[in-house]
Each structure stands twice: as structure tokens, then as C-alpha cells.
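In this supplementary section we document a worked example of the pipeline. Step one takes a protein sequence of length 73 as its only input; no multiple sequence alignment statistics are reported here. Step two produces a three-dimensional model, which step three serialises into C-alpha cells for compact storage. The input and output of this example are shown verbatim.
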Amino acid sequence: MPGINEKILEALGVATKHAHANSFKIVYLATLAFTGIGLIASFWIVDVDAFLTNYVNKTIHKPAIMKNAQEDV
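The serialised model returned by step three reads:
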């Protein structure tokens, strides 16, 4: 570009570093806020182990295992 020199390039490099640092700061603070909310909410989580069983209330799809095995032979 016409008129660009070393001082302008150096200022551009410094400004880019500051812009990146500030953007990472904003992301860090937002992450910190969500982590704090999640940590506080985790104290009121109920244990759901009683509901984790292998029982299936209703069969949605019956696989035709024997039918496919006879067709393959």
C-alpha cells in the first residue's frame, strides 16, 4: 500500500496483539461466569441412579433376526 512504513507496521502489530488479548479476556470472563453458575447449580442436582435401569417400557421396533438369517442363506 502506498504510504505504509515501518512505524505503521509496528503500530499495527502492537494493536493486533492488544485486540487479541482483549478478545480473549472477554471470552475468559464469560466462561468464568457460566462456570460459576454451573458450579452453584450443581449443589442442587438430584441423584438419578434409581431411574437408570435396563427396563424398556414398550418395544418400538422388533428386529426380524430369523427372517433375515434365512434370506441370507
